[in-house]
Design brief:
It comes from Segetibacter aerophilus. It is built from three helices and no strands. It is mainly alpha-helical and 65 residues long. The protein has one domain. The longest helix is centred in the last third of the chain and has 20 residues.
């Protein structure tokens, strides 16, 4: 549950902006999307390894398209 402390003189737009930032930082939407479908642990691990390899190649400058 997200709680936003708003002052009496604060604009509703500022409070909404604070809420949106707090919602994004809590990663609630990402969790909901991840729970929509089950992925096997082996598939998750494989995607993590492929992403790590890609990031390493980009950092070393070895990636060519």
């Amino acid at each position: 549950m997200l709680i936003i402390d708003s002052k009496d003189c604060e604009n509703i737009d500022k409070a909404l902006k604070k809420y949106k930032k707090k919602f994004e930082k809590s990663k609630t939407l990402l969790q909901l999307r991840a729970r929509q479908s089950f992925t096997k642990p082996s598939v998750e691990r494989r995607t993590q390894v492929l992403k790590a390899i890609y990031r390493q190649q980009m950092a070393n400058g070895e990636f060519e398209s």
